[in-house]
Write a structure and sequence with these properties.
Elements (H helix, E strand, L loop, with lengths): L21 H7 L4 H6 L1 H14 L14 E4 L3 H13 L7 E4 L13 E5 L6 H13 L2 E6 L4 H9 L3 E3 L10 H14 L7 H17 L10 H9 L3 E6 L2 H18 L4 E4 H4 L13 H4 L18 E7 L13 H17 L4 E5 L5 H22 L8 H10 L2
Parallel strand pairs: 1-2, 1-3, 3-4, 4-5, 6-7, 6-8, 8-9
Helix pairs in contact: 3-7, 3-8, 4-7, 4-10, 5-6, 8-14, 9-14, 10-14
């Protein structure tokens, strides 16, 4: 047990038995991160209904913008990556995720700024909204009702989309993403229809049921993934641009919920250099010294090793105008799995399912989201409370 001045508590080795004890899971998750994460499907439905009540049609009155800036930090900032990948390479204008205060210097009346904040008070979103108003850019704000961001939107007479019931920002990806997608649809930048939203919500509901606390580890994909990652250095690569967004999302949740260091990115980029990690001191060099008769899923105390998680998309249509041909992405994914196998680096594969880009993204995000929480709980960590974040804010504000 570690007890420090920052209030950190937990244990270094994961307790597999704990994950099959629903009562113990509930006791170690007092903030309800599992419950909040299970609300993803409901977030899609509620956010779509709230967006329908906002006057988004005014966004189209001035025609297509020159560019769209998605302003936010953390999970809010990740919504810009989701929009860019769902819109795809045929999007008629650039979509730019902006993760610092204010807006880029070139933003003006020809552009649209979408400011997002789960709390409604992040300096990045507030600064962007105020700067957009000063420069005459069209503004859309997404955040809690009666928040500071809501007030800025009212002063700017800009559309405001309230987020669903309060949940931690990390567990609010879908509540923040759907308003961004629907605002972009109003601008004619993305094709997302009601059927896509309904199927995405159903997919998230189904994965939440498969990953529920009462489902035992051997039938629960999230618990199985968490136990496979326990004690490792995770490398999460996505085979396509859409899968790479899911990979980075998994990196976010592994770091914030389970406090694990993680390498994430696109498999194409990894193939230019980072794939060399499989040969390194945590990869092939370590695996080459492993006892061939040892249980591959049990730590032998000889050091931390890599664990590869490959998120495979597969695409919807091989003829789509994509950044790279589907066949190239698939061959690259096959190759990295072969490389990992040859070096003894264990690999988990999550494969996308669904009939739309949004549903396929959901199928790559849902189980890993739960896995990051189960990994935290297996180590006795409260996934909601991150003392280092509070301390950093206090120190930075001195």
């Amino acid at each position: 047990m570690i007890d420090g001045t920052a209030g950190v508590s937990g244990h270094r080795n994961a307790d597999e038995r704990l994950l099959d004890d629903p009562q113990a899971l509930a006791e170690r998750d007092p903030g309800g991160m599992l419950r909040h994460t299970a609300s993803a499907g409901a977030q899609v439905r509620e956010s779509a209904a709230l967006a329908a009540e906002a006057n988004l049609s005014v966004l189209a009155d001035e025609g297509r913008p020159r560019a769209v800036v998605i302003a936010g930090i953390g999970t809010a900032g990740r919504t810009g990556d989701v929009l860019a990948t769902v819109a795809g390479p045929r999007c008629p204008v650039p979509v730019i995720a902006h993760r610092s205060a204010g807006v880029p210097g070139w933003v003006g009346a020809a552009d649209v700024v979408i400011a997002i904040s789960a709390s409604g008070r992040s300096p990045e979103a507030l600064g962007a909204a105020e700067a957009a108003h000063r420069r005459g850019a069209r503004l859309v704000a997404v955040g809690p009702a009666e928040s500071q961001l809501h007030s800025v939107a009212e002063r700017a007479r800009a559309p405001f989309i309230p987020v669903p019931r309060r949940a931690p920002a990390r567990a609010s990806l879908w509540g923040l993403t759907v308003p961004v997608l629907l605002a972009a649809r109003a601008l004619g930048l993305v094709k997302v229809n009601e059927a896509d939203l309904a199927e995405t919500a159903a997919r998230l509901d189904a994965d939440a049921d498969r990953s529920r606390p009462t489902a035992e580890s051997f039938v629960n994909p999230a618990k199985s993934l968490a136990l496979g990652l326990a004690g490792s250095i995770p490398i999460v690569w996505g085979s396509s641009p859409l899968a790479a967004v899911a990979a980075r999302r998994f990196g976010d949740t592994l770091s914030a919920n389970a406090r694990y260091p993680v390498v994430t990115g696109a498999l194409g980029e990894a193939g230019r250099g980072r794939v060399g990690l499989l040969d390194g001191v945590f990869g092939g060099l370590a695996e080459g010294e492993r006892d061939i008769f040892a249980d591959p899923d049990e730590s032998d105390g000889e050091g931390t090793r890599l664990r590869l998680v490959l998120l495979r998309d597969g695409g919807l249509n091989a003829e789509d105008d994509a950044d790279e041909p589907l066949a190239v992405e698939e061959r690259r994914a096959d190759a990295v799995q072969t490389l990992a196998e040859r070096r003894g680096v264990r690999c988990d594969v999550v494969t996308a399912e669904g009939g739309s880009a949004l549903e396929r993204l959901a199928s790559l995000v849902a189980v890993p989201d739960f896995a990051s929480i189960y990994l935290a709980l297996a180590h006795g960590l409260d996934p909601m409370a991150v003392p280092a974040i509070t301390e950093m804010k206090e120190l930075a504000n001195q």
